[in-house]
């Protein structure tokens, strides 16, 4: 690696202002930061060590996703690798183009978006839809707002929402039945054209028809669903890691799961024949994945602690209402996007109340 580092150091003047390849400076610095460390350092005291920068923040999320990724490969096979590759190529192209146009650095934020997007997609969705969805999500959900740190919506959810509205039949027509073999599908590639012969309905779709799978299947992940959202155990393992490392705020997670359980429990108590148990619904669908990995995005969620509680309550209760009173079997995507919209308003409300209290105490 030392030889590679020396090569980067020799090539640096070419990419700096006035160099022959100055227009490619964002790509050069992104590779340098990814392979080694940020090139900018303080030259004199004091030297301040931050607890968590953007690069390490994103690395923690990728590490937390490993259980979900492994489970997805086990149940759905090598096609997930193709989806991840397409996601990074298509979304990364949009990211690089905007960095070059704006003459800014390429941020590590897309490392997470590029991995999250395939995990919230049906495992047999055509690869061209993966490319279109992630490109749309990065462009509309992120770059139009100014890039990393300025986006109002979660880019991965924007892309999935677009595909769900533009291609509803493809996104919900059939779901791949997870492998029941001991070795899973680690070394198998399931082509999208064969999904008709091996497809099934998701647990939430079956619940709409009055059929409910066992809770053990939901915990293990041996049920049809989005690639990374079927195994509750894998999601919880990654989610706890995010909470322990303080990358995700526990108030948001507890607010979502608490409000969801409370409202779902009331509905089940009122009409048990129509509404399923709250404990079952918590582990079904994408609620856990959304609560741990999507709603906790620090850019699109409130910054105040009180705002995080309200934000979580809105997402959890909205998910219950969409699941039970609309034609959609799943409502997490729309609920989190709604939460993203109101997040700035919630912070404004909290700060206004605090200022009012401070003035009244004077």
Q: What is the CA-CA span between the terminal residues?
A: 61 Å
- What Rg, in angstroms, do the CA atoms define? 22 Å
Q: Widest sheet: strand order?
A: 1-2
Number of domains: 2
Which bin fits the share of residues in helices? 55-70%
Low-confidence runs: none
Describe the structure.
Helix content is 64%, strand content 1%. The chain is an all-alpha fold. The protein folds into 2 domains: 21-34 and 54-212, no CATH class; 248-362, no CATH class. The radius of gyration is 22 Å and the shape is globular. The mean pLDDT is 85.
SSE map:
Blueprint: H1 2-15, H2 25-35, H3 54-76, H4 79-102, H5 109-119, H6 127-141, H7 155-166, H8 168-172, E1 175-176, H9 195-198, E2 199-200, H10 203-208, H11 215-220, H12 232-244, H13 250-270, H14 278-283, H15 287-294, H16 305-325, H17 332-361
Antiparallel strand pairs: 1-2
Question: What are the salient characteristics of this protein?
Answer:
17 helices; 362 residues; two-stranded antiparallel sheet; mainly alpha; globular
Short structural summary:
This protein has 362 residues and is mainly α. Helices cover 64% and strands 1% of the residues.
């Amino acid at each position: 690696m030392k030889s590679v580092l020396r090569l980067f150091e020799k090539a640096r003047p070419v990419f700096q202002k006035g160099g022959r390849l100055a227009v490619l400076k964002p790509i050069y610095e992104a590779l340098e930061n990814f392979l080694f460390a940020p090139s900018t350092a303080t030259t004199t005291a004091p030297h301040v060590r931050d607890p968590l920068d953007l690069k390490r923040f994103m690395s923690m999320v990728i590490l937390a996703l490993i259980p979900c990724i492994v489970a997805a490969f086990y149940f759905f096979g090598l096609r997930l690798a193709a989806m991840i590759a397409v996601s990074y190529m298509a979304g990364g192209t949009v990211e690089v183009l905007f960095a070059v146009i704006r003459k800014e650095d390429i941020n590590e934020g897309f490392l997470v978006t590029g991995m999250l997007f395939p995990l919230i997609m049906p495992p047999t969705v055509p690869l061209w839809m993966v490319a279109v969805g992630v490109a749309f999500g990065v462009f509309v959900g992120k770059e139009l707002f100014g890039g990393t740190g300025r986006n109002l919506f979660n880019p991965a959810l924007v892309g999935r929402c677009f595909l769900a509205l533009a291609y509803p039949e493809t996104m919900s027509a059939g779901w791949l039945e997870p492998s029941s073999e001991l070795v899973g599908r680690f070394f198998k590639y399931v082509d999208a054209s064969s999904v008709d012969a091996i497809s099934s309905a998701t647990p939430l779709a079956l619940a709409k028809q009055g059929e409910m799978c066992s809770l053990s299947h939901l915990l293990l992940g041996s049920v049809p669903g989005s690639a990374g959202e079927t195994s509750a155990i894998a999601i919880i393992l990654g989610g706890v890691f995010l909470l322990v490392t303080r990358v995700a705020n526990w108030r948001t997670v507890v607010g979502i799961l608490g409000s969801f359980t409370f409202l779902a429990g009331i509905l089940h108590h009122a009409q048990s024949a129509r509404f399923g148990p709250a404990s079952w619904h918590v582990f079904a669908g994408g609620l856990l994945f959304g609560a741990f990995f999507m709603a906790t995005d620090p850019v699109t969620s409130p910054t105040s602690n009180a705002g995080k509680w309200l934000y979580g309550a809105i997402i959890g209760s909205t998910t219950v209402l969409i699941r039970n009173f609309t034609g959609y079997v799943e409502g997490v995507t729309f609920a989190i996007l709604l939460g993203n919209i109101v997040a700035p308003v919630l912070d404004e409300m909290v700060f206004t109340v605090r200022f009012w209290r401070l003035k009244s105490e004077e």
